[in-house]
Amino acid sequence: MKKLFIIGGTMGVGKTTVSQLLKQKLPNSVFLDGDWCWDSCPFQVTAETKEMVMQNICAVLNNFLKCSVYENVIFCWVMHEQSIIDKIISSLNTVNCRIIAVSLICSEQELIYRLQKDVTAGIRTSEVIKQSIQRIPLYRSLNTIKVNTSGKSATEVAKEIAEL
Predict the structure, then answer these.
(1) What's the distance, CA 94 to chain centroid?
(2) What sign results for the dihedral spanned by CA atoms 75, 79, 81, 83?
(3) What is the DSSP string of 84-111?
(4) How many domains does the chain have?
(5) Domain containing 8 — which CATH number?
(6) Which Pfam families is this protein grouped with (predicted)?
(7) What range does the domain containing 108 cover?
(8) Contact 98, 2 (CB under 8 A)
């Protein structure tokens, strides 16, 4: 039986890093970061681009799920609303597939520290800190397994998720 790992969390919590490590840890794995499905300049969030990104994500994930060589499909994205997770799952062919939905969480202090490092390195703008902090509470209400990343290395978090 295939496994589909759906990994959400606010910006800066470690989704991409953990997912890349999980891909290396699990056999016959493939990884999709939802951000890759609408990496544009300028980045525009409209009804049309939101619909397009969902279609892109689901098309790629369905292709991964139907490909016989992959046992583990790993997907990460912000996914701060249950409706986003539900829409993605309902658009996938998950026959013979175990879905493991995870939300990565961490303390506000840890999140600020991680994001500030990215801001200093020029990877992110300072506005992302406020936006990300505001989304922290949204993950508590989701129908997902919560994995706290505070004080843990990305390797430790990936190991924890692999054991689910």
Answers:
(1) 18
(2) negative
(3) HHHHHHHTS--TTEEEEEEEEE--HHHH
(4) 1
(5) 3.40.50.300
(6) AAA_18
(7) 2-162
(8) yes
